[in-house]
Amino acid sequence: MPKLIANALLFQLGWLACVFAGDSLWLLTVAAIVAVHLLWIGRWAAEGKLLISVFLAGSALDSFLLNLGLFDFGEPRTLIPLWLALLWLLLATTLNHCLAWTARPWWRASLLGACAGPLSYYAGAQIAGVGLPYGTWQTLLLLAVIWALLMPVLHGFARLYRSQYEQSVRARQST
């Protein structure tokens, strides 16, 4: 239980560092959080593929939404800022830990995604000064649909990589 609480608190600390600090040296806080996570809560061998996959897939998704005009960072850009990309890395650290309870049944992940996803974007946009050109409610509804679909997929990544890791451990133990 202490590791689950620490995982949730580290995620929140990282979220706050990202949205308040933007692309500044404070983002090194995220590196420290991921290091603490991998040294104490999780393991690189067990979660490395998950962290990289969620970071890349989430960054690609948000960059796609940016190019659709869903977000306005106040300057022309085709890729999301680093602080937003790092939020995906932080989210990945929670999937096998403090958010594991949402993996099954699948609707828990969908419900969490539909509610918490848009609220996180809204709060982050307000703090970081990100514009929502399509309108707040329209953007939040679209994000709710996306996140309702996305969270079960992310848990599927977590389950797949966890299974691969467990198989490799069993194979090493049997030799």
UniProtKB/TrEMBL annotation:
<keyword id="KW-1133">Transmembrane helix</keyword>
<feature type="transmembrane region" description="Helical">
    <location>
        <begin position="50"/>
        <end position="68"/>
    </location>
</feature>
<feature type="transmembrane region" description="Helical">
    <location>
        <begin position="80"/>
        <end position="99"/>
    </location>
</feature>
<dbReference type="InterPro" id="IPR021306">
    <property type="entry name" value="DUF2878"/>
</dbReference>
<feature type="transmembrane region" description="Helical">
    <location>
        <begin position="140"/>
        <end position="161"/>
    </location>
</feature>
<keyword id="KW-0812">Transmembrane</keyword>
<feature type="transmembrane region" description="Helical">
    <location>
        <begin position="111"/>
        <end position="134"/>
    </location>
</feature>
<dbReference type="Pfam" id="PF11086">
    <property type="entry name" value="DUF2878"/>
</dbReference>
<protein>
    <recommendedName>
        <fullName>DUF2878 domain-containing protein</fullName>
    </recommendedName>
</protein>
<feature type="transmembrane region" description="Helical">
    <location>
        <begin position="26"/>
        <end position="43"/>
    </location>
</feature>
<keyword id="KW-0472">Membrane</keyword>
